[in-house]
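Let us practice reading a record.
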Amino acid sequence: MKLIQKNFILMAGVISTVLGTAFLIHSFIKEIYWLAVASAVLMILGLIFLAIAFGD
């Protein structure tokens, strides 16, 4: 994998994980469960992106 692709995937993973975690906590506090599920999916995708970036 090219270095530019790796850095892009790494940056997307970090941003997705941080935003997913922030929205997940906020959603559970406000009891908006559909947003909590979407945030959890976003966080998991971010972790997958991080695994791809560090694994290659």
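A brief commentary: The chain has two helices and no strands.
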